[in-house]
Amino acid sequence: MNWASAVPTPPPAHQNFAATNPQAFSKEYSIFVGDLAPETSNSDLVAVFRNPPKFIRPFLSCKSAKIMLDPVTGVSRGYGFVRFTDEADQQRALIEMHGLYCLSRPMRISPATAK
């Protein structure tokens, strides 16, 4: 018997990543946004959700947006994804933002599906 195997030792504190960085594992909730104008940027999409029309409460948990680009040309594919840190905001966005305009076109909103 090896002396090292007789007494189990806890892992070093630096290996407990979740304890030192609780946001590293926080959940995110995404939606699909389609029918976007070619000139729509990531920041345009975030702005629409954080500063919607006055009759809709802002989506304060809107964390980021990602417009999908053609890998060869770099041109927008006309759709993207918006991430939220709050599931209630994600669910509300699915209902309240569908059909509202982002720049010059109404958005088509649906749940994001995993690859």
Automatic annotation (TrEMBL):
What GO terms are given for molecular function? mRNA binding
Q: Which GO terms describe its cellular component?
A: cytosol
Q: Which SMART domains match?
A: RRM
- PROSITE patterns according to UniProt: RRM
Q: Does the keyword Iron-sulfur apply?
A: no
Per UniProt, the keywords (alphabetical) are: Repeat, RNA-binding
Q: Which SUPFAM superfamilies does the record cross-reference, listed alphabetically? A: RNA-binding domain, RBD (SSF54928)
- The answer to whether UniProt assigns keyword Protein biosynthesis to this entry is no
User: Where do transmembrane segments lie in this chain?
Assistant: none
InterPro entries, alphabetically? Nucleotide-bd_a/b_plait_sf (IPR012677), RBD_domain_sf (IPR035979), RBM42_RBP45_47-like (IPR050825), RRM_dom (IPR000504)
Which residue range or ranges hold the RRM domain?
29-114
**CDD domains documented for this protein:** RRM2_NGR1_NAM8_like (cd12613)
GO BP annotations of the record are:
mRNA splice site recognition
This protein is called what?
Answer: RRM domain-containing protein
Organism this protein belongs to = Fistulina hepatica ATCC 64428
